[in-house]
Backbone:
């Protein structure tokens, strides 16, 4: 080890900053300090959402920009209470904060969206009872549309004023769509067919589980049994 130390010192003898080489004894405990503060660069469309304080100096012109400023347009922002939410990507020792939509462009990562669907049949509970149960659990829900299907399977809006007399004589299945907390859609058909659809992630999965629990509960509720018996 001493020969290695002397060789390293001889190779770095001409440097302006002196090189230090430590040669601890075998089985000796080493404590190497590391800087704990980490800096993440905000890139992409997420950087455009950050409001730069007026007290900061204006960025240099294109002719005066160096490589680091031209690539990332880094400005040291003062802490003014801004909350930035995004995806933190680490490449070696570099951290970048970006929007999920910019992962492919700035990080070379491909994102995939998983759509989940659960189908069930509610023979006793009606649309009004389902809506009442969902509103009692999640608060106000949004009715997206009440549509019906034509012979080609395409959905058209239900508007009695625009329907022709011949179309009124044909009984077509109707469909009502509710949106719960802006994340889960509940489609209810004429014959009790219910489809729950959501985008798979941690928060939406929990909401969807709660929606399914409400739907199964309302099917066996006294109001649903009374409605079915009548």
Residues:
């Amino acid at each position: 080890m001493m020969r290695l130390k002397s060789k390293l010192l001889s190779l770095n003898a001409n440097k302006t900053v002196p090189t230090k080489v430590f040669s601890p004894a075998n089985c000796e405990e080493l404590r190497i300090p590391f800087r704990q503060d980490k800096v993440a660069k905000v890139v992409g469309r997420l950087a455009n959402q950050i409001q730069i304080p007026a007290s900061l100096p204006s960025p240099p012109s294109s002719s005066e920009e160096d490589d680091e400023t031209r690539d990332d347009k880094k400005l040291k922002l003062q802490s003014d209470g801004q909350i930035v939410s995004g995806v933190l990507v680490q490449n070696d020792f570099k951290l970048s904060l970006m929007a999920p939509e910019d992962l492919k462009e700035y990080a070379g990562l491909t994102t995939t969206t998983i759509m989940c669907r659960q189908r069930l049949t509610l023979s006793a509970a009606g649309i009004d009872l389902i809506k009442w149960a969902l509103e009692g659990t999640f608060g106000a829900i949004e009715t997206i549309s009440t549509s019906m299907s034509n012979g080609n399977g395409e959905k058209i809006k239900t508007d009695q004023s625009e329907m022709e007399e011949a179309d009124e004589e044909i009984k077509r299945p109707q469909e009502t769509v509710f949106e719960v907390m802006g994340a889960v859609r509940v489609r209810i058909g004429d014959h009790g067919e219910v489809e729950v659809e959501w985008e798979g992630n941690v928060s939406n999965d929990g909401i969807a589980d709660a929606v399914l629990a409400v739907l199964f509960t309302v099917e066996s509720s006294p109001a649903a049994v009374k409605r079915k018996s009548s």
The first helix runs from residue 2 to 11.
